[in-house]
Amino acid sequence: MDTRQITAEYRLTHWSRVLQEHHQSGLIIKDYCESIGIHPNTYYYWQRKVREATYTPRKELDTQSISPTRFAEVKVYGSPNTSHPSFSGEQGTIRMEMPGLTISADSSYPSAKLIEILKGLVSC
């Protein structure tokens, strides 16, 4: 192993620790960088370098074996006072939306009926 490679590994290890310490600090990047005396651009540079060094490409997915009917987008909204325009405003309300179809039910609707509806949709 040559000295350049050893130096590169040392730097990556050092900056990995710096990134971890920032994460544990709970501070925003600007404040954390100021507290340890580095410029935020330096932080972002090393963040990118560490990510590149630790990135492992995932195996390509076989898109032919994935059934698009098995997946659905799920949006979770917080409390009823959320500012999202499609939030129903009632806690305990479930709302499922697909192109051309919307299903809404409040928490008093029997779960067995919802399961039957979902099974019917999946079989389509």
SSE map:
Elements: H1 3-25, H2 29-36, H3 40-54, E1 93-98, E2 101-106, H4 111-123
Antiparallel strand pairs: 1-2
Describe the protein.
By secondary structure, the protein is mostly helical. The protein has two domains: 3-54; 66-123. The chain is built from four helices and two strands; from the N terminus they run αααββα. It has helices at 3-25, 29-36, 40-54, 111-123; strands at residues 93-98, 101-106. The protein has a two-stranded antiparallel sheet with strand order 1-2. The model is unreliable at 80-90 (pLDDT under 50).
Sum this structure up briefly.
The chain is mainly α and 124 residues long. It has helices spanning 3-25, 29-36, 40-54, 111-123; strands at 93-98, 101-106.
What is the CA-atom radius of gyration, in angstroms?
A: 24 Å
**Helices and strands: which structural class?**
mainly alpha
* Beta-strand percentage range: 5-15%
Number of strands: 2
What's the SSE pattern?
A: HHHEEH
What characteristics describe this protein?
two-stranded antiparallel ribbon; single chain; 4 helices; 124 residues; 2 domains; mainly alpha
